[in-house]
Amino acid sequence: MSSSTTVPVNLAVVVPFFNEGLGAAAFLDRLRRALEAIERSGPGKIDWRVICVNDGSRDDTLKALLQARRVEPRIAVIDLSRNFGKEYALTAGLDHADADVVIAMDGDGQHPPEMMGAMLEAWRQGNDVVYMVREARDVRGLHRLLRNLFYGLFALASRTKLPPEAGDFRLMDRHVVAAIRQMPERTRFLKGIYSWVGFRQTGLKYREDARMEGRSRWCLSRLLSFAMDGLSAFSTLPLRIWSWIGAAVAGLSLLYGAWRVIRAIFWGIDVPGFETIVVSITFLGGMQLLSLGVLGSYIGRIFEEVKARPLYIVRRSYGLSEPANETGR
Ligand code: UDP
Ligand code: MG
User: Fold this and answer.
1) Atom of ligand 1 lying closest to residue 217 CA
2) What are the beta bridge partners of residue 14?
3) Which residue positions does the secretion signal occupy (predicted)?
4) Among the atoms of ligand 1, which is closest to the Cα of residue 108?
5) pLDDT of residue 231
6) Could you count the other beta carbons within 10 Å of the beta carbon of residue 278?
7) Domain count, the chain
């Protein structure tokens, strides 16, 4: 959905920040230079702005963002009332991004702003989404195994396709952003949401830089619960699979019972049989607890959705004309 080259293209760059006080200024400087380079080299005019979302940082991130805004008024700032998490900070930014094209990227310098020219080029060629694919990421051992397991399970359990190695660094046409805004779910598994909305999507490769300052907030347990959320948000297979397992176990025990009867008739009864009883009771008990746990996790999510709490709360925004949406739904 490219537009003609005579009217300037409205571009909004959405960046979430959480405790990035050390690197925010340098990153915004780099971002501004990349945007100015695109402005100079064309093709066509662009009218850009940057929407920084301060996700309840406990350091002086907000100060750094406001300082950058004083120098460059095209930088707007949304200050959330507390730390809601990256997915929610991004959602807040997308809700406030009223532009023809939106680019989302991390504020820690891992997503090179210099790629934006190539992304816009792919958009001009008629793509609605340009997702950025990390090249040669260096993860090994348990992490790698779990990641492959997750993508395998997800592909098996859900009809939503997740391009592996594609994250939040992406360009989206305004129609895509509008579609995402319509998705009301409180469990913001953005990877799934991005893919679920459809449109013409294409991937571009990029080399991920090292973090400029600070460190990543993702530890193993957080990644695991993120993966569970993702699976339960985009698949009901964990709920449905129990009827198949139940049917299989019931069928097998029926066969086994029949076999015991036939055996008793032809060969007489031998009393022992203790192991079979114990094994079947414990096995079935375990399966029942497991399926209860799965039910519980879905009911928990229904509870979260039914409460219909806002996705985020804006404390104050700077440089955004319309306080369109202060809480997100
Ligand atoms: N971030 C955020 N809220 C959070 C955690 C992270 O807005 O609760 C931001 C963070 O400032 C950075 C981006 O999200 O700009 C990616 O975070 P991080 O580097 O921790 O994740 P990773 O790069 O390891 O996926
Ligand atoms: Mg990072």
Assistant:
1) 20
2) 51, 104
3) none
4) 15
5) 80
6) 10
7) 2
